[in-house]
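Narrative of accomplishments. A recurring question from our advisory board has been how the design workflow behaves on a single, concrete structure rather than in aggregate. To address it, we present the structure tokens for one chain from the evaluation set, followed by the sequence designed for it. No filtering or post-editing was applied between the two.
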């Protein structure tokens, strides 16, 4: 959900995005539908980081793949600079692919182990720009330096790098074609905590320098709090709350957001929190609960929660929540736009 001003400058808009997968179930092989993404709306403007959080299997990574057009949506659309990308031919999509890059969780799996580091970084560059080997080498050397790798590491193979260095390599590869937005899918969750901080700080420095936008997908709220400008909370394929970072971390309004924040460990043993602990497992996206998907785990469930799906409403400036208990407020200069 965004304000009208933010939306006017949106680089990326996601409208009513759905991805449903047919699946065979039971010994009769009945076809059922996994509702991985079920009507997601949000936008990201230039230079902004939107954190996307939620438990495993809530649809965060599938949303990222739909934005990158690695998968086609069942319904809804992804607009890049106002243009729906899923209607574009492969040739029309080329410039969009250049501007929309990705950094994935497991850098080792996403880098070809048989190609030297310099060629891994140069590959997308050569796809988009005609240049001599010497020019490509110069550009790659500059990228290595920018992400904190040494020029002598250009001849090494991915297995010769540490996890953090491999992630720097993945970032250099994404940066090589001068993107505008990078989908970062759990980019630090496989790294040691000390290395996580270095990579996050690098991403923030690069954002400043190149005015990059990020969709930062993660389950670690501390990391998301550090890097994001706004945060969207996802549950069973839907966004249940979206708000500026400070608002969501100090005044969460959706019971699921409250529970997620309460689950964050406090490093001081003398500090005791009144935690709202979530009970029960996340329901299956094959047959999600009726009404509000969260009603089977919500401590405030009412009768209508079981039958009526709550609409997204603005409850404070820039803060949108899908919960029957939250009352909408009338706020000047902001409108419900896309999420
Ligand atoms: Fe809980 Fe009802 Fe709000 Fe859903 S709509 S979060 S079940 S109170």
């Amino acid at each position: 959900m965004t304000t009208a001003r933010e939306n006017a400058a949106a680089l990326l808009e996601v409208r009513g995005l759905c991805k449903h997968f047919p699946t065979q179930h039971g010994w009769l092989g009945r076809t059922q539908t996994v509702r991985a993404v079920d009507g997601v709306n949000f936008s990201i403007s230039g230079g902004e980081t939107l954190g996307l959080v939620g438990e495993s299997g809530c649809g965060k990574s599938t949303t990222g793949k739909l934005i990158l057009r690695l998968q086609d949506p069942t319904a809804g659309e992804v607009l890049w600079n106002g243009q729906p990308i899923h209607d574009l031919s492969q040739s029309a999509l080329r410039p969009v692919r250049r501007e929309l890059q990705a950094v994935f969780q497991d850098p080792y799996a996403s880098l070809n182990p048989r190609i030297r580091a310099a060629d891994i970084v140069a590959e997308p560059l050569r796809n988009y720009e005609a240049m001599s080997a010497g020019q490509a080498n110069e550009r790659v050397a500059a990228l290595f330096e920018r992400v904190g790798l040494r020029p002598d590491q250009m001849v090494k193979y991915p297995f010769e790098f540490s996890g953090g260095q491999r992630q720097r390599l993945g970032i250099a590869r994404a940066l090589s074609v001068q993107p505008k937005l990078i989908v970062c899918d759990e980019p630090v969750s496989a790294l040691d905590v000390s290395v996580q901080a270095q990579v996050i700080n690098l991403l923030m420095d690069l954002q400043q320098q190149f005015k990059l936008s990020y969709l930062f997908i993660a389950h670690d709220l501390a990391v998301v709090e550090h890097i994001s400008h706004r945060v969207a909370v996802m549950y069973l394929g839907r966004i249940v709350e979206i708000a500026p970072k400070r608002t969501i971390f100090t005044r969460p309004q959706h019971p699921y957001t409250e529970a997620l924040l309460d689950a964050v460990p406090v490093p001081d043993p003398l500090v005791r929190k009144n935690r709202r602990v979530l009970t029960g497992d996340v329901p299956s996206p094959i047959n999600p609960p009726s009404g509000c998907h969260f009603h089977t785990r919500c401590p405030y469930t009412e009768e209508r929660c079981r039958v009526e799906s709550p609409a997204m409403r603005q409850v404070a400036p820039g803060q949108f929540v899908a919960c029957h208990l939250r009352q909408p407020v009338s706020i000047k200069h902001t409108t419900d736009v896309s999420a």
